[in-house]
Amino acid sequence: MVFWQRRTAATRGIERASMIRTVLAWAVALFVSFPFLYLATSGFKTEVEAPKMPPAFVPVPESLSGFPLAYTPTLENYKLILAGDFMPYFINSAIATLVSTLIVLLLATPAAYALTLPQTTGKRNVLFFLISTRFLPAVGVIIPIFLATRFLGLLDNVLALIILYTAMNLPIAVWMMRSFFQDLPADVLDAGRMDGAGTIQELILIALPMIKNGVLATAFLAIIFAWNEFLLALTLTTTKAATVPLYMISFMSAQGLWYAKMSAAGTLAALPVVILGWFGQKWLVRGLSMGAVK
Amino acid sequence: MTSEANPALFGRIPILGRFGLWIWRNPLIAPALLVVIVVTQAPFILTVIYSLFRWNLQRPENTAFNAFGNYVDIVRDTRFLDSIVTSLTFTVGAVLLSLLVGLIYALLVHDRFFGRGIVRTLLITPFLIMPIIGALAWKYTVLSPIFGVVNWIVRQFGAAPIDWIGMYPVASVVAVLVWRWAPFMMIIILAGLQALDDDQREAARMDGAGPLGEIRFVVLPHLKKYLQLSALLGSIFIVNEFDVIFMLTQGGPGTATTNVPFLIYQSVFYSFDIGHAAAMAVVTVLGTIIIVTYLLKLLGSLMGDLD
Amino acid sequence: MGSITISKVTKHFGALEVIPPLDLHIEEGEFVVFVGPSGCGKTTLLRLIAGLEDVTSGSVAIDGTDVTQVAAARRGLAMVFQSYALYPHMTVRENIGFPLRMAGIGKAEIARKVETVAETLNLTGHLDARPGQMSGGQRQRVAIGRAIVREPKAFLFDEPLSNLDASLRVNMRLEISELHQRLQTTAIYVTHDQVEAMTMATKIVVLRSGIIEQVGSPMELYNQPRNLFVAGFIGSPKMNFITGEKAAQHDAATIGVRPEHIALSKDAGAWQGAVGIVEHLGSDTFLHVNVSGAGPLTVRVAGELAVNFGDTVFVTPDANRIHRFDAAGNALPRRN
């Protein structure tokens, strides 16, 4: 609210304004986080406690139970879910996400590098073609993809998800990595050429080590998108290859509304990517803007 | 036949020949490009072809060429027009509100203050959470008539609880979309604020601009392209929104929240009407191209010359 | 080994002609400096020789062999860049050894050669450091080390000193000159700084808009500039140019006199003028004297001088040091 007054923060009124801003920012943050913080805490409650109002937020030992806003945490729900059929879904998600991300990096790295070289022609066309595919609605291709997958016998097979997630994340990965390659000082790459490195050697020995963070950032983003993907998983898998989001759906329809267990399952499903995103915060903007914003 | 020998494999077809040659000369790019073409372009061509056929998976014996019949059908069918209106409502409403909320978030957390890192992290989390779980949390912990916290507050004031999703389905979906997309806007706007030269702000102040003048004359003009970028990217993602609707409302009540992607999904997987769904998909893609074209122009100008 | 011949080389960037047809011969062992204002094409010319840019037409030959189509790395040249262009993820040892590694030389020999080079450049203690941990001067030495380890036919320097601060620049200038004395390898050095050109070069090439204005030794360029551009570019402070009647007296459209070739007196002299700004450098004093009919002239006087703004003084150009130019700006032969 008052960020433009930073430089003259010596005066009193501004200190007060900055206090208000701090409080306001925290209030907004807590308000916004309510749904997931509540979901996360509910997973540690018993089925009896979970739907109680007002929402209990403070975990306390059993001896203190009964206080307002307090609950006694339990790991029972997590044990039940992990002992149940959660793991196969989790493993499918992990395989589809990690394998597709690996392939994305293998394919995107050389492409992105070649798209920064002066001798490559038609760069603009290739880049815009790639990104336009990412921007067009998935429903535009879902029908033939479904039919083709069925025709190839790949329905309910993780391989289908791997292929589709690869194609889904490739354009963004190419754009993003290209923006990292482009930021490399031209002189260093010229020095590499003078020193006798060919294109591939230059990529592997000079350029790639210099954008280690960029590779990591690209991987982060690809993982986030693949892990959270729902429409394709819903369309192409049923049981054998079903991923975590489908677990949630099947859990809810099969078990009914068990608040605490549903919350625990939701937390488990969302957590890997949320944590990854927290660590990769500073790189998000680059990926989300296709490298246009740094 | 030309007298000149043509070395290219696809020599008879000039465009394919040129493309083939380009692919051959760019072995580093070719694999990525081919994967994307095979997985995304080929299916779209099939979608266009399907859209010209009468084809229902449940009555395959009735399959026949239908020319533009499916297109005529969907134009006549009010459900499709309704779903377009719903899509636009969601997109415009959610994008504008997310921009505003995202701008407020960004201004709140741009400067250093106690716990800024945690606050930022909390603010971006809705965007990281798997969309169907975010929607699930809203459905059962916030908006639910029995268990939702909003209704608990309402009850404290002595009012009767309200079935928010049932009574205000569009507003509920927009609320969840804004919750999810405002962080996205914030991230881009924050990057914009960081790129703003402090000297410019100080110069404006030296020139006599007050805090509001500074925002109006320096900060907002500087943010313009970032706001445009986030609005366009946001539009493209939100116009395709499927997950939140699937989890929150299943397109209902009735068809109140059935947007185009959800309608197409229903046509394929509930009515198995491939031809019909394909025609809607083609129209959707063509419609999206308009936004995409603007977006690509903007991206191009932000990235500078590419060739 | 290390003569370079450029024949009818041109370079276009799209429709823009950066280098019109250009010929230049560089003898083995010379220290050639390309100098000119920014945008004159000097760096482009260097990159054409290096092979980092392709010529649009014409040819480049090294030791009589046409290398126009030869890749940068195979031309046997080494380059030192303005930004040093070190590989940030490699240690100094790996940086210097990189060209040898690319040439497929064995590990033991690389290690030996890197040690030798490091010793010459006082880098022995830093071999395991990374460039990020070093000062600008040290990085520059690593860049030079990476160039000399290959024992190239010629060194190419692209404004290597412009990222250093003033005092370090003078030191590195001397180091590079000494290196050239010792190795006697051909060097091509690009700079916009005419002081570097004058102090380091055995041959200066003055470029403007891709055209060679003059080639010669530093003193040739100082004493016999071929045209107004070279006359104005070489020498500091700049040569004074006078047009009009005073030039006509010498049968020229323009005459030029260097500030150090004008005598100053408070009592008598050829031209009378009023003192404007006075710049005291300690070792020298630069006076800006407003002479009627000649305009403002810069006069350089050795040592200190007690004159004030507005004083009337007399200035006398050294008749033997007057440069005459025709209306097109080309130098006319000396009279007398």
TrEMBL record, chain A:
It comes from the Bacteria. Its main location: membrane. PROSITE patterns: ABC_TM1. CDD domains: TM_PBP2. It comes from Antarcticimicrobium luteum. GO terms for biological process: transmembrane transport. This is Carbohydrate ABC transporter permease. It holds the Pfam family BPD_transp_1. The chain crosses the membrane at residues 20-40, 89-115, 127-152, 158-177, 203-227, 258-280. It is found in: Cell membrane. It is a multi-pass membrane protein. InterPro entries: BP-dep_ABC_trans_perm (IPR050901), MetI-like (IPR000515), MetI-like_sf (IPR035906).
From TrEMBL, chain B:
It is found in: Cell membrane. This is Sugar ABC transporter permease. The keyword Transport applies. One of its GO terms (cellular component) is plasma membrane. It comes from Antarcticimicrobium luteum. InterPro entries: MetI-like (IPR000515), MetI-like_sf (IPR035906). Keywords: Cell membrane, Membrane, Transmembrane, Transmembrane helix, Transport. Its main location: membrane. GO terms for biological process: transmembrane transport. The chain crosses the membrane at residues 28-53, 84-109, 121-138, 177-196, 226-248, 268-296. Belongs to the binding-protein-dependent transport system permease family.
TrEMBL record, chain C:
Transmembrane segments: none annotated. The keyword Metal-binding does not apply. Keywords: ATP-binding, Nucleotide-binding, Transport. SMART domains: AAA. GO terms for cellular component: ATP-binding cassette (ABC) transporter complex, substrate-binding subunit-containing; maltose transport complex. PANTHER family: MALTODEXTRIN IMPORT ATP-BINDING PROTEIN MSMX, MALTOSE_MALTODEXTRIN IMPORT ATP-BINDING PROTEIN MALK. This is ABC transporter ATP-binding protein. It comes from Antarcticimicrobium luteum.
